[in-house]
Amino acid sequence: MRKVTAGLFVSLDGVVESPEKWHFPYFNDEMGEAVGAAMAASDAMLLGRVTYEEFASYWPGVSSEEQPFAAHMNDTPKYVVSTTLEEPLGWRNSTLIGGDVAEEIARLKQQPGENIGITGSATLVRSLLQDDLIDELGLMVHPVVVGSGKRLFEEWGEPKGLELVGSKTFDTGVVYLTYRPPSG
Known about the structure:
5 helices; alpha/beta; Dihydrofolate Reductase, subunit A; about 25% strand
């Protein structure tokens, strides 16, 4: 069975919005390798509407010579969760999920293949965590206080325990924490 894995850049104060404004001073080769390994372990992407629109406006015009992740971003099948977008989606290999999201994700997990990776898409990650559809959550916690912006765990319901299964500190001070739902 496939796993849904999510990876997010997050500030010390929990902000996940607009990492392009605060993330890059902390990005180094170690982080690039970790991001690349997560991408290599997935053969499909799951995106929320906002992230899809941001990525679709950038990645199709980027070559692998310019950005090492361009081929993965452009060639990998993408499943886009949205109630406002309509098909056909403009970015190649993109399929709209607009109905029962939990049911569709559960169906995708039953198909053969590698991981289904989520990059960004905080609202989607939060929703899938509440529906017990995230199998692994990777948080790259940056040593910066952003002050304002969308936080990963805004408007959260009941407490949900997660099990820390890995941690790594990069030379820039970023801590990469990997969580899974509790076993047993």
